Amino acid sequence: MPEIYNHKTAEEKWQGKWEREGFHKTASGSGGKPFYILEMFPYPSGRIHMGHVRNYTIGDVIARYKRARGFDVLHPIGWDAFGLPAENAAIQNGVSPAEWTKTNIAQMSAQLKKLGFSYDWSREIATCDPSYYKWEQWLFVRMLEKGLAYRKKTFVNWDPKDKTVLANEQVIDGKGWRSGAPVERREIEQWFLRISDYADELLDGLGSLERWPDSVKTMQSNWIGRSAGVEMEFEIEGAKPVRVFTTRPDTVMGVSCVVVAPEHPVAAAAALRDEKVAAFVREAGSLPATEAGMESAEKKGVALGVSARHPVSGEDIPVWTANFVLMSYGSGAVMCVPAHDRRDFDFAVKYGIAVRQVVFPPEGDFDISSGAYTGEGVLKNSGPFDGLSSAGAFERVADFLKSEGRGGRATNYRLRDWGISRQRYWGAPVPVIHCAGCGAVPVPDEDLPVCLPEDVKFSPGEIPSLASLESFVSAPCPRCGADARRDTDTMDTFVESSWYFLRYVSPDFEEGMFDREEARRWLPVNQYVGGVEHAILHLLYSRFFVRAMRDLGLCDFDEPFSALLTQGMVTKDGAKMSKSLGNTVDPDEMIEKYGADAVRLFILFAAPAEKSLDWNEKGIEGMSRFLRRLWNHTQKSLTYYLQDDRYRDELMELIKKYGSTQEFTLNSKVNETIEKVTEDIENFHFNTAIAAMMELVNDMGRFSLTGDMFVDVGDERISTNTFCLYSAILKTVQMLSPMAPHFAEEVWEMLGNKKSVSLEEWPKWDSSLIGSETVEVVFQVNGKTRAQAQMEVGASDELLEIAAKNNDRVKKHIEGKEIKKVIVVSGKLVNIVV
Ligand code: ANZ
Ligand code: ZN
User: Fold this and answer.
1) How close is the Cα of 245 to the center of ligand 1, in Å?
2) Which H or E run includes 301?
3) Pocket of ligand 1 contains residue 527 by CB under 6 Å
4) String of b and e for 558-571 (b: at least 16 CB within 10 Å)?
5) Ligand 1 pocket, 357 CB below 6 A?
6) How far apart are CA 140 and CA 128, in angstroms?
7) Which residue in 367, 366, 375, 369 sits closest to 355, CA to CA?
8) CA–centroid distance, residue 395 to ligand 1 (Å)
9) Residue 316 has pLDDT above 90, yes or no
10) 327 Cα nearest atom in ligand 1
11) For residue 329, which of 107, 119, 163, 704 sits 20 to 30 Å off, Cα-Cα?
């Protein structure tokens, strides 16, 4: 028996055993309730970082705990394997993106295995595998048939550094989310997915996600940005009327001008007549088309020399174009109300446009010369609407416009359709062939997948793209057979991650995206764990995909993830751990030095799961000390305990009946700890669960094995005292096993168990044993006080007598003597007369 815990040999030993014996293969049909625990799959960047370790440790604790609770657990892992870094590596080093990705996957799998995560590796998927993206292409074709995928020419966010189009979501403060380069505008043909069709459902569905963090739901809700308002038409001489969308129809009588987006047809028409307007439109066209960009840019505009007729007053008002009006929102035109909108106010001040106040605070006055009054209130200077409240005016104005045929109520969304086209090489090709005669023809199902040519060499510095691979591009038209050209766009990598959780239920399924029966059994995912950085994009796209697939008749549920846990960041000295800051900590080094279990424990212990976690190596040392302490108690309990578990149940009964005070106390603590740890794990409070176990292990340190009491059980004389410690350790190890699985296995085996602790049922607690109160009982010999002891209130006289006789100090005075009489005063005193 080894004296010192050797994490290296133990971890290797158990990882080998788990793998050889298929411990973590998904149980199916064993009758257990299914539980699907999923962590966001990693991008194969090359090495595992601490953020991964945190994410996957949390998921693994849940997976192991649920197995112990009798669930059939699905806990898969795979690789989000397409994307730019692979291409950047190719550009820099001339390696093929496929090679680079494969090498990284191999490296990172080995790292994950070293951490002892209980994945069902037989279900591993990589999204760059043709057997995976084949089904993505197949789905794309279904979406195309249904009109859920379509192509249109649009202004796009162009990342000049990564040379690709970005989704609005990927533009942060006017810069590319990955490259950080200022984003430009370009007009090209793009593929879109009609997520906006689902805007209402995606928003309303948030209400059913009770086990999602509120913060994530708020972010999604803001992203969808549903706003209820009114649309109205301003007539223009000799042209189509300009429609505007407003959320404040109560301000309609305060309109000073109509402002259209630079791309609006009215602006384009004016540009033909007026060089000043033309110049303005050209300049505005080079700016990024994002809201954030618009918000921060200086407000600039130019009058078009056109006037519009106010739909209520019939007054003629000027039409302008300005850079703060987005063509892509509402109808690309606004009614400008300087008195009540900050942006309009700034614009009016700059260009000397009239400010007309029409809404007044319910009480008090407002000095409109200092800025806009944006609140609601009572209407004045508003003709037929005078005296109405803002809310009342909303309805009246809407009704009026409707009855006049000049507008009515309207709802707008911030959410735009999802542009999925990327002009890059390392992605899933869009399965379409463009034919001069037939147009855009989907690749027939039997010709899928459209494989990405992998055996290409890009020379260093060259931007890899499918368009440059002539052998890929030229193809016969599937409809008429004429020479045609393949679409050279690849899909946004967020498309792959929008359905990977479905593929895991049957990763080798060949007749479709997934086996429907399996999907019924496992989905929706019971618990999803991942970073809050995916609060909007990935989670919204996945929610959209599941709904789209439902409407295509492919699955039977609405929401992909029933519960979501977003773990906090890993920081070092308060700063985010990142390669660019050079403050990363290599998990491998820590595993080597302290063992995977200590690393896992530290990650769980150092902070609540949702909060950020500041790295410090001392913390890991603390964890390995904790494990050592428990290891030492184990050694102690082994030297005393007869390794025979035949009598375990009987012994437990005996301890309940005859155990000494300290046994009661330890037992009570064990039961209390099981209850606490169970509740904590259920609520993801892993840090306090570990703290509770540490307290218990401290109590073991105070537990004395001297003054032992022996009882006859069967044909053995067994020490109740040692048994008590032994059984406390058994329970502790079981509770610890989801978090420190290797250590738990090793100790469990050492304690004489044949079956792996990962196959054990989660320990139960006995509430009747928790927190029993004690009283001080005096032990006397011949009327002289020799000792005191804390005994459980209500302990039997028989127990008091046994406890007294077994007390060390009492023993000294009675040993070898004949006991004549024992007087017990219940709950107070035992006097032994010798
Ligand atoms: C007049 C008005 C008066 C407005 C007022 C606000 C306050 P949300 O809530 O985000 O939907 N707007 C409409 N279309 C626009 C576009 N294409 N580009 C830029 N701005 C646009 O915002 C709706 C408001 O945003 C609308 O209500 C409109 O300004 C502006 F006291 O109309 B409002
Ligand atoms: Zn054709």
Assistant:
1) 7
2) strand 301-309
3) no
4) ebbbbbbbbbbbbb
5) no
6) 16
7) 369
8) 17
9) yes
10) 17
11) 163
pLDDT tens, 82-126?
A: 998 888 888 888 888 999 999 999 999 999 999 999 999 999 999
Sequence-separated (6 or more) residues with CB below 8 Å from residue 750: 1, 634, 638
496 phi/psi in degrees, rounded to 5: -60, -45
339 versus 811: the higher-pLDDT residue is: 339
287 confidence band (pLDDT: 50, 70, 90): low
Which bound ligand lies closest to the C-alpha atom of 439? Answer: 2
pLDDT tens track for 259-276:
999 999 999 999 999 999
Nearest to 193 by CA among 544, 516, 453, 433: 544
Pairing of strands 774-781, 829-833: parallel
Kindly report the three-state secondary structure assignment for every residue of 533-594: HHCCHHHHHHHHHHHHHHHCCCCCCCCCECEEEEECCEEECCEECCHHHCCCCCHHHHHHHH
**Helices 7-20 and 596-605: crossing angle, nearest 10°?**
90
Residues of the chain with pLDDT > 90: what percent? 71
- Is the Cβ atom of 490 under 6 angstroms away from ligand 1? no
Which ligand 1 atom is at minimum distance from the Cα of 332? Answer: 17
Shortest-distance Cα residue to atom 32 of ligand 1: 246
Cβ–ligand 1 distance for 332 under 6 Å, the answer yes
Residue 12 tokens, joined? 């290797």
- Answer whether 377 contacts ligand 1 (Cβ < 6 A): no
Mean pLDDT (the chain, rounded):
91
- pLDDT score of 460: 73
pLDDT (mean) for 555-578? 93
Atom number of ligand 1 nearest to Cα 294: 19
Dump pLDDT digits (tens) for 584-620. Answer: 888 999 999 999 999 999 999 999 999 999 998 899 9
Question: Is 254 close to ligand 1, i.e. is its CB under 6 Å away?
Answer: no
Residue type at position 792: E
Q: Give the β-pairing of 78-79 and 125-126.
A: parallel
- Report the Cα 26 to chain-centroid distance in Å: 22
Residue type, 804: A
Ligand 2 centroid – CA 473 distance (Å): 15
Banded pLDDT at 644 (limits 50, 70, 90): low
Among 221, 247, 342, the mutation site with the greatest number of ligand 1 atoms within 8 A of its Cβ is 247
How far apart are the CA of 788 and the centre of ligand 2, in A? 99
- Residues 51/570, Cβ–Cβ less than 8 Å: yes
pLDDT at 215: 96
Mutate to test the pocket of ligand 1, among 242, 341, 374 (most ligand atoms within 8 A of CB): 341
Structure tokens, 749 = 């085996």
- Does residue 293 have its Cβ closer than 6 Å to ligand 1? no
140-144, 234-238, 648-652, 660-664: which is most confident: 140-144
Q: Which two tokens stand for residue 651?
A: 């012994």
The pLDDT, as a whole number, for residue 486 is 97
Atom of ligand 1 nearest to the CA of 372: 31
pLDDT at 292: 54
In whole angstroms, how far apart are CA 102 and each of 307, 516, 532? 63, 30, 27
Q: How far is the CA of 217 from the centre of ligand 1 (A)?
A: 24
Question: Quick one: 237 exposed, middle or buried, by C-beta within 10 A (0-12, 13-18, 19+)?
Answer: exposed
Tell whether ligand 1 has an atom less than 6 A from the beta carbon of residue 343. Answer: no
Residue to mutate, 246, 342, 397, ligand 1, most ligand atoms under 8 Å from C-beta? 246
DSSP codes joined into one string, 224-235:
H--EEEEEEEEE
| Cβ atoms of 665 and 771 closer than 8 Å | no
